[in-house]
């Protein structure tokens, strides 16, 4: 494993970046609107395929395609709120959640109906990647990490240094109080949808660029993203970044970890030989972590603290 | 003749899904428990039957065994619902459903892994049997809901506080709800196995859960008649669109995708405009002098 | 006999000490009022006593036995039944169903019994129905028997919550602001109802949180005053109304108990 360490670290960072940028919108929406949006990761799919439309079908440049895809996805996010979820503000958490489930089914199959189930890729040259600190990194991965990093910083500045950010924090802390302080919370909600959806769409483009496009790509990450959100605490935008980091590393390193070492108390005892997570179960890791969090610490590692 | 055998098949499948939908409606519609992993009952029921049929157990016993195993799974799962709110439990059950499927996928010794299990046991008059079992399941849920037990479930559906303040052991009721849901779900899975004679993990993707959600949502939560209606509607739609292939210039995959788009939109629209379902529920009228 | 005894009960929320080691007793067969400024801990007290909130310290005795730490349904089964400030009527059930479900220890609630002792379950249902019907008569809600509770007016729902309590036949009624938001005429009816059907009957004790002093003066034998999580005064309604400490704590928060100046 030690030879692969740098590559594993890189892979973990990539996974973390993908989860973080998609999860940001989910954690905000979950916090302000108080329901679990199962359709959120489908926004990533939408962004990815819009990117495909512009880049491959219309032959535009990659940056322009991605930018446009992100913006359009952001707008679509706002649209889903206006049309579908706005009427459900006071209705509790179950009905919007079921609705989002239906919406996710419609969205991912809509993409499938239009573009088909076959794997798609963007119009870019395949690159073997350059060597960096013992790992191979491709241009798409460099861009992915950079863009996500910049996006996170940018969002942090937005949250802490702007009036809008202040309004967002106020709405997240106590919506009624924010309303009373003459903050138009519905506008804040719309903006949160836009940013969250745009980030998700951008994330989808990045994922598609790094790997490939497939209508199920959103559904495949829905539980990992929820896991990152819950690890960090709902509504905690820094928490989701932390949760994404943790999950990214655990997913990539987890299959190498010898739990037998813990059980044997570091070699002091000899109860078991080796106890490792079988490779086949790697996809199960986020599911298991999620169930454990929900059972024992649903408020997450960082708990109820918001981005103060 | 072909039409007859097709109808035969359709009735059987609809009956199986009706029982599956009734199991979900019991948990969600009557019990207020949002289970996004309902498929795991189906899965345990089907695999129990497949494994026991392969070792020569007769169908009646296999089916009862399947119901028992799934009921027990329901009992275990109820402990996860104890302190978890609706949203979290929905996410948790979705996860558990996938974990279960992954276990069956990877543990070859258990049930053939990715290759699945097949067996060669046919039940005579199968279609008739499934319909009869559907009617019995329906009757059972109706009876339960008309009893004082069902009345307490209805109160729990709206929140734990009122029933707790009246001295009802809410967790115990939730446990029983999950067991009943499990038993019915396991029955559906068992029948599914006998119908197909070959099952593998690909039969138990989350989409199966989502389809019965559509059925329950269409029919109206808590409304068992409505659930049956929803099952029939969704099944007609499913099968009807298969024939559309002959009339529309669309590929098989596109058609399948569009079908799911309609299912998804159906859920969205009903939740938006008729969250109580399309079939109006009947209230219980008592004669009071 | 002291039906309910609370001994040095503590409960904090974060840094806020809602109950600061409060001790009080409610005597059997009385109507005892609990008043105090907003935030003095009255509802928190009810919540901890009835088992809906875990305590931080102290003891609660009911009928001589300790109940702190028990689950809310266990406490309710022992005869301590509470109402909620925000009406908890099951809105998707009818008025009758709301009442029927409130009856304690129904055999039919055990699923096994439904099958095994079907006859007994049927008979219990019939008795329940009769009991519910007579309560509806008393409340004047009979015409709404088969109406969804969600369609009732606010005042009617308050009546329904009282009706549920009657069905449950508690030993100790914990009423949390039963007249809040109810119009004055209905309040008069409610009080008359309480006097006739509950207070006059032997073996019923009421512990009632109220902001309306007229209600307190009208039905309470004893009044306990809470401020900042502690009992600061106790006595009959006239004694309390003239108690300087009580007046001071209300004035300090610039609040007067309602009904005083009318």
How would you explain this protein's 3D organization?
- The complex is a heterotrimer of chains A (308), B (289) and C (262).
- Chain A has 308 residues and is mostly helical.
- In chain A, 68% of the residues lie in helices and 2% in strands.
- In chain A, strands 1-2 form a two-stranded antiparallel ribbon.
- Chain C has 2 domains: 2-89 and 168-252, P-loop containing nucleotide triphosphate hydrolases (Rossmann fold, 3-Layer(aba) Sandwich); 91-151, no CATH class.
- Chain C is built from 10 helices and 10 strands.
- Chain C has helices at residues 42-49, 72-77, 95-102, 111-116, 118-139, 154-168, 184-199, 213-219, 237-241, 244-252; strands spanning 2-13, 16-27, 31-35, 57-62, 65-66, 80-82, 172-176, 205-209, 222-227, 230-235.
- In chain C, the strands form 2 sheets. A 6-stranded mixed beta sheet of chain C has the order 6-7-8-3-9-10, sandwiched between helices. Chain C has a 4-stranded antiparallel beta sheet with strand order 2-1-4-5, covered by helices on one side.
- In chain C, helix 3 runs parallel beside helix 6 and helix 5 packs across helix 6 (154-168).
- The two termini of chain C are 36 Å apart.
- Chains A and B meet through helix 4, helix 9 and helix 12 of A and helix 4, helix 10 and helix 12 of B.
């Amino acid at each position: 494993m030690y030879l692969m360490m740098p590559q594993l670290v890189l892979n973990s960072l990539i996974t973390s970046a993908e989860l973080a940028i998609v999860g940001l919108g989910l954690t905000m929406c979950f916090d302000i609107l108080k329901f679990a949006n199962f359709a959120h990761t489908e926004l990533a799919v939408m962004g990815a395929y819009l990117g495909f439309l512009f880049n491959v079908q219309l032959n535009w440049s990659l940056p322009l395609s991605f930018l446009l895809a992100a913006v359009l996805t952001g707008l679509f996010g706002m649209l889903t709120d206006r049309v579908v979820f706005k009427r459900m503000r006071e209705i509790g958490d179950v009905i919007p959640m079921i609705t989002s489930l239906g919406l996710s089914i419609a969205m991912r199959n809509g993409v499938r109906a239009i573009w088909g189930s076959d794997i798609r890729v963007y119009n870019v040259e395949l690159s073997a990647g350059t060597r960096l600190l013992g790992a191979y990194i491709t241009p798409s991965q460099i861009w992915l990490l950079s863009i996500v990093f910049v996006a996170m910083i940018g969002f942090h500045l937005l949250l802490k240094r702007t009036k809008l950010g202040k309004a967002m924090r106020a709405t997240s802390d106590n919506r009624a109080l924010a309303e009373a302080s003459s903050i138009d919370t519905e506008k804040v909600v719309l903006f949160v949808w836009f940013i969250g959806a745009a980030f998700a769409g951008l994330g989808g483009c990045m994922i598609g660029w790094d790997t490939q496009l497939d209508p199920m790509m959103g559904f495949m990450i829905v539980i990992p993203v929820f896991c990152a959100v819950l690890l960090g605490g709902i509504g905690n935008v820094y928490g989701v970044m932390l949760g994404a980091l943790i999950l990214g590393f655990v997913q990539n390193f987890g299959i190498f970890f010898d739990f037998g070492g813990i059980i044997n108390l570091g070699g002091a005892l000899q109860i078991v030989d080796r106890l490792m997570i079988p490779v086949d179960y790697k996809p199960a890791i986020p599911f298991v972590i999620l169930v454990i969090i929900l059972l024992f610490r649903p408020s997450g590692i960082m708990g109820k603290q918001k981005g103060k | 003749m072909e039409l007859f055998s097709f109808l035969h098949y359709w009735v059987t499948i609809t009956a199986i899904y009706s029982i599956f939908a009734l199991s979900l409606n019991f948990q969600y519609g009557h019990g207020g428990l949002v289970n996004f992993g309902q498929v795991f009952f189906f899965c345990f029921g089907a695999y129990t039957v497949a494994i026991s049929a392969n070792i020569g157990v007769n169908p009646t016993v296999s089916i009862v065994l399947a119901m028992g195993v799934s009921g027990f799974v329901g009992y275990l799962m109820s402990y996860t619902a104890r302190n978890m709110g609706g949203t979290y439990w929905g996410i948790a059950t979705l996860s558990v459903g996938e974990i279960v499927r992954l276990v069956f996928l990877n543990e070859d010794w258990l049930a053939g892994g990715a290759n699945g299990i097949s067996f060669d046991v046919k039940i005579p008059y199968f279609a008739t049997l499934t319909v009869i079992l559907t009617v019995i399941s329906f009757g059972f849920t109706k009876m339960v809901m008309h009893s004082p037990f069902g009345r307490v479930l209805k109160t729990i559906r709206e929140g734990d506080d009122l029933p707790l303040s009246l001295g009802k052991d809410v967790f115990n009721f939730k446990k029983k709800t999950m067991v009943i849901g499990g038993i019915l779900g396991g029955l559906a899975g068992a029948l599914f196995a006998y119908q197909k004679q070959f099952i593998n993990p690909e039969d138990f993707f989350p989409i199966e859960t989502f389809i019965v959600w559509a059925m329950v949502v269409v029919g109206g939560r808590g409304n068992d008649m409505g659930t049956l209606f929803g099952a029939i509607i969704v099944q007609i739609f499913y099968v009807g669109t298969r024939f559309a292939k002959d009339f529309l210039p669309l590929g098989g995959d596109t058609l399948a995708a569009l079908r799911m788009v309609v299912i998804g939109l159906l859920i969205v629209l009903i939740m938006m405009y008729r969250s109580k379902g399309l079939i109006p529920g009947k209230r219980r009228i008592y004669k009071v002098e | 006999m002291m039906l309910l005894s609370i001994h040095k009960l503590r409960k904090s929320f974060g840094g806020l000490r809602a109950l600061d080691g409060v001790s009080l007793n409610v005597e059997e067969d009385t109507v005892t009022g609990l008043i105090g400024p907003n935030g003095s801990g009255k509802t928190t007290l009810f919540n901890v006593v009835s088992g809906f909130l875990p305590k931080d310290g102290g003891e609660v005795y009911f009928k001589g036995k300790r109940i702190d730490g028990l689950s809310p349904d266990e406490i309710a089964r022992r005869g301590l039944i509470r109402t909620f400030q925000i009406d908890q009527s099951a809105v998707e059930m009818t008025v009758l169903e709301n009442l029927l479900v409130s009856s304690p220890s129904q055999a039919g609630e055990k699923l096994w019994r439904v099958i095994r002792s079907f006859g007994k379950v049927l008979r219990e249902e019939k008795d329940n129905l009769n009991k519910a019907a007579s309560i509806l008569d008393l409340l004047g809600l009979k015409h709404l028997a088969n109406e969804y509770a969600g369609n009732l007016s606010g005042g009617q729902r308050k009546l329904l919550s009282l009706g549920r309590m009657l069905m449950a036949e508690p030993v100790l009624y914990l009423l949390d602001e039963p007249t809040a938001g109810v119009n004055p005429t209905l309040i008069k009816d409610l009080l008359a109802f309480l006097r006739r059907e509950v207070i006059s009957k032997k073996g019923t004790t009421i512990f009632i949180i109220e902001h309306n002093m007229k209600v307190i003066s009208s039905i309470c034998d004893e009044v306990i005053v809470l401020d900042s999580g502690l009992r600061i005064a106790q006595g009959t309604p006239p004694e309390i109304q003239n108690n300087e400490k009580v007046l001071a704590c209300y004035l300090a928060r610039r609040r007067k108990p309602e009904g005083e100046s009318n």
